[in-house]
Amino acid sequence: MHKMLSLLVLFLFILEEVFHQKLGKSGRLSSKPTDISIVRNNFDRFDLTRLLELLFLGVLVSTPSGNPSTGHGQLTMMLVSLQIARLFGRRILSRWSVLGVLQALEVVLLLTIILVPVKSSYGEYPFTPLSLVALIGGVVYSVFVSIATAFSISYGVRLFAPESSKTYEMFPPLAGSESWAVKFSSFSLFAGIAGATGLVLTRGISLLPILFSVSVILQFAGVLLCRKETFNGHHPRAHILWGVSFLILYFLAVSGITTTSSVPTL
Questions:
Q1: What is the mean pLDDT of residues 183-194?
Q2: pLDDT tens digits, one per residue of 66-88
Q3: Concatenated DSSP letters of 173-186
Q4: I need a surface site. Which of 94, 140, 230, 244 has the fewest CB within 10 A?
Q5: 264 phi, psi to nearest 5 deg
């Protein structure tokens, strides 16, 4: 069931991209939505498609594979959160390219859910208030890190794209992408520290708390680096640290290390 729903959402992602490419080639869609276009189009085909995607992702959460005690369930919760961010992002970020990168990350998570077998249990992890703090903190942290990663990818594309290319113009200025990445990385630290503390107190010194804490430390190191002044006004090394931090989180979810043996209930 979860694979069918995931494929359906993936189809809607492809359909959304077809709409985007068709309007872009016709000249009716700029790389940066203007305030006027947002006001005139409070609800358009992109919003409708994203709402349908969000609806089916919500259904996916309700399936057994959406159980938050499994790695697949945690990825699904991330997908729902990222989809909400993308739904409202057009009116906040005003950059189709960044929203496209965020969608690409969602596709990666969807393909992971489709292709990687579900692991039903991993070790002992009884439900307690601390385990709930670890779960919620970990998911919220992962969402903020994923959004920060989308801006870091946008930063990297703009950094290496030739200035005369269309790709260079599509993505935000380096300082703009870095500014947003720093914001979301800073936000993630609060949830990350809560999640790491909950994991250490519930699981002790084991692989999951250690790797999760390393991810949080890398996020913090990137934020500190961005506070240092540079001659060019941006900090490539910070984005490398944030990228490694995201890959650690992705490895934890895919490997099944974050999967628990009990189902947290409120």
A1: 94
A2: 777 777 888 888 888 888 888 87
A3: PHHHHHHHHHHHHH
A4: 230
A5: -65, 135
